[in-house]
Amino acid sequence: MSEVKSRGHVAINVEECKGCELCIAACPMKVLSLSEKFNTHGYHTSSYIGEGCSGCGICFYTCPEPGAITVFKRWDLMTEKRFCPSCGVERKVFSRDSAPDISLCTECSQPVNKEKNQLSEK
Ligand code: SF4
Ligand code: SF4
What we know:
The protein is an alpha+beta fold. It folds into two domains: 2-73, Alpha-Beta Plaits (2-Layer Sandwich); 79-121, no CATH class. Helices cover 15% and strands 32% of the residues. It contains four helices and seven strands, in the order αβαββαββββα. It has helices at residues 2-5, 22-26, 58-62, 118-121, and strands at 9-12, 32-38, 44-48, 69-72, 81-84, 89-96, 99-105. It has a three-stranded antiparallel sheet with strand order 5-6-7, with no helix packed on it. A hairpin with a 5-residue loop joins β2 (32-38) and β3 (44-48). The radius of gyration is 14 Å and the shape is globular. The chain starts with a helix and ends with a helix. Residues 117-122 have low confidence and may be disordered. Bound molecules: iron/sulfur cluster (SF4) (2 copies). One iron/sulfur cluster (SF4) binds next to α2 and β3.
């Protein structure tokens, strides 16, 4: 679905989000909304609806919380997947320049298995 239709993609690290809604108001594609779920700090957090992100990066520059938002400008070109224990399903992964050996989930920004799993190798 979103992996095919959208050029961009956005991952919200819910534990860094304070639910200020600035990114939701700023997004020109209107693909962010406030989740009904709480994070462990008691905030409702921003959530990506799953498709339609253009990769413009406006939400990233609007957010006052470092590390809360990661934007992938060419989601369509990202192909590597791993099993994410937090999501319970296989997700596309990425690494930060500051920690290139650590793979993170593009959905929840949590660490994923370093080695490719069985699903990825099929
Ligand atoms: S990158 Fe742009 S289109 Fe995508 S969620 Fe952020 S503001 Fe919206
Ligand atoms: S701008 Fe940042 S802190 Fe505010 S709701 Fe969006 S992700 Fe959360």
